[in-house]
């Protein structure tokens, strides 16, 4: 159950309208790494959580907070759109100043949403549920969450640099600070799970069934050997099970692919010898059943 408190989690008051910036701000609302994405991602991870209660509670705590961030951004975008030109572009073109503003704003903010925010990114692409991850494996999910918060904080910082409005910067500084906490939160949760589950996901699969001779080999598939200097190319592996091996110019280990010709009813390109037989009239009629006719 959710309750709505009328006050925002933090202030969302621009100093003045800016419809062009409102379009940019849509990215951290409805983009791939925006607040809608992390809100849905954390809530579904929490609702689906089958692990001990503290993880479920933590996920629902942060997922609920992200609802507040969506509300803050939607409120900010709506206020940035105050006074934006909502009349025809032809009429706006008579005023060069208005034309410049209209030319940079998202016209759907005026035409579709009535000077309000939308669940879209900065290019107007609708938010997509496929942006979110909820796998049932908390270590895998928490690593995805850390990536989402890292990308999200990066984008908010870039938007902070793209405005001088004190009110907008004040709200963004709050969101940046919360993203700092959330990155630390996921790193702490990841570390805790790694101590009990190991660092490889999933930890429940028996390594005897994987091709262990290549489990810890870094294979250099590019010119030069700069990549050999990385931590991933030498020393003990992070799961504590082996040592990294560096392989320069790795050799192919598989067969040369050779596919059987398609049956005649597919009408693909036949092998050379079959085309010769067809030309000589020696190819037997097709006796294979056509599955498309069944």
Automatic annotation (TrEMBL):
Ca(2+) binds at residues 57, 61, 220, 222, 224. Mn(2+) 1 binds at residues 35, 69, 149, 182. Binds 2 manganese ions per subunit. Its cofactor is Mn(2+); Ca(2+). InterPro entries: Ferritin-like, Ferritin-like_SF, Mn_catalase, Mn_catalase_C, Mn_catalase_dom. Mn(2+) 2 binds at residue 66. The keyword Manganese applies. GO terms for molecular function: metal ion binding. Keywords: Calcium, Manganese, Metal-binding. Pfam families: Mn_catalase. CDD domains: Mn_catalase (cd01051). Belongs to the manganese catalase family. This is Mn-containing catalase. It comes from Pullulanibacillus pueri.
């Amino acid at each position: 159950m959710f309750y709505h408190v009328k006050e925002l989690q933090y202030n969302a008051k621009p100093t003045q309208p800016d419809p062009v910036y409102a379009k940019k701000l849509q990215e951290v609302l409805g983009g791939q790494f925006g607040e809608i994405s992390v809100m849905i991602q954390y809530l579904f991870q929490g609702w689906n959580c089958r692990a001990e209660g503290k993880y479920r509670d933590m996920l629902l705590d942060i997922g609920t907070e992200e609802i507040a961030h969506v509300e803050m951004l939607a409120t900010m975008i709506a206020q940035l759109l105050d006074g934006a030109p909502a009349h025809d572009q032809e009429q706006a073109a008579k005023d060069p100043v208005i034309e410049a503003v209209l030319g940079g704003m998202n016209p759907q903010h005026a035409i579709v949403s009535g000077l309000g925010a939308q669940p879209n990114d900065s290019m107007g692409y609708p938010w997509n549920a496929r942006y979110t991850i909820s796998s049932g494996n908390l270590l895998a999910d928490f690593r995805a969450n850390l990536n989402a918060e890292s990308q999200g904080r990066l984008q908010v910082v870039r938007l902070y640099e793209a405005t001088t409005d004190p009110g907008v910067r004040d709200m963004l500084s709050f969101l940046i600070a919360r993203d700092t906490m959330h990155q630390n939160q996921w790193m702490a949760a990841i570390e805790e799970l790694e101590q009990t589950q190991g660092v490889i996901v999933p930890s429940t699969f028996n390594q005897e069934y994987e091709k262990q001779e290549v489990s810890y080999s870094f294979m250099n598939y590019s010119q030069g050997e700069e990549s050999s200097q990385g931590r991933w190319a030498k020393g003990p592996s992070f799961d504590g099970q082996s040592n990294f091996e560096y392989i320069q110019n790795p050799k192919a280990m598989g067969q040369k692919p050779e596919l059987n010709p398609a049956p005649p009813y597919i009408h693909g390109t036949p092998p050379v010898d079959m085309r010769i037989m067809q030309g000589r009239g020696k190819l037997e009629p097709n006796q294979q059943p056509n599955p498309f006719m069944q």
